[in-house]
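Lecture notes, part 5. Sequence design as translation. It can be helpful to think of inverse folding as translation between two languages: the language of shapes and the language of residues. The source text, in C-alpha cells, appears below.
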C-alpha cells in the first residue's frame, strides 16, 4: 500500500514539474518585432458567389461574381459592428487563359452558364498573385481561376 502511494505521489510530482516549468516568458525566435509573426500570404483562395456574367474572348474566358450580402446578423452583434475586411474583396472577375488551358475554359463556360440559368451559387477557386493573371485580366479586379464548383443545395 505504501509502495503504491509512493508511486502515485512520484507520478504526480513528474506531471506537475513540466506545468510549473511552463510559467514565465516564452521567446519565439521566428516572431518579429512587437511579438507579431508575419504569416505568408495564401497562394490560393476560394469564394462563394453568384455569377453575374460569363464572357469568352480570344485570349481568355472570364466570369464576374456578385457577393451575396446574406441575412442580417440580428442580435448577434451591436448595431455599430463592422465585420473584418475579406481578402481580395474587390476582385470580381475570375479568368482562364484560352490558349494556356482551353479545356478548363470550356468547362468554366459550361458550368458557369448552367449555374446562372439554374440560379445556383458557385464556389470559385483562384490564385491570389496578380502576376499569374491570364492575358486581359486586370490586376486590380481580376484573378486567375483554377477551379469552379456549382453548389447544388
Amino acid at each position: 500500500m505504501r509502495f503504491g502511494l509512493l508511486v502515485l505521489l512520484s507520478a504526480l510530482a513528474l506531471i506537475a514539474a513540466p506545468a510549473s516549468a511552463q510559467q514565465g516568458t516564452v521567446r519565439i525566435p521566428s516572431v518579429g518585432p512587437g511579438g507579431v509573426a508575419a504569416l505568408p500570404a495564401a497562394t490560393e483562395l476560394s469564394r462563394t458567389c453568384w455569377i453575374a456574367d460569363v464572357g469568352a474572348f480570344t485570349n481568355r474566358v472570364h466570369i464576374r461574381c456578385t457577393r451575396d450580402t446574406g441575412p442580417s446578423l440580428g442580435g448577434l452583434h451591436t448595431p455599430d459592428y463592422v465585420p473584418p475586411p475579406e481578402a481580395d474583396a474587390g476582385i470580381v472577375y475570375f479568368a482562364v487563359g484560352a490558349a494556356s488551358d482551353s479545356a478548363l475554359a470550356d468547362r468554366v463556360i459550361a458550368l458557369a452558364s448552367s449555374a446562372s440559368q439554374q440560379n445556383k451559387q458557385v464556389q470559385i477557386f483562384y490564385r491570389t498573385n496578380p502576376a499569374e493573371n491570364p492575358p486581359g485580366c486586370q490586376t486590380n479586379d481580376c484573378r486567375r481561376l483554377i477551379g469552379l464548383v456549382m453548389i447544388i443545395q
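The translated text above is only one of many valid answers, since several sequences can fold into similar shapes. The first helix runs from residue 2 to 21.
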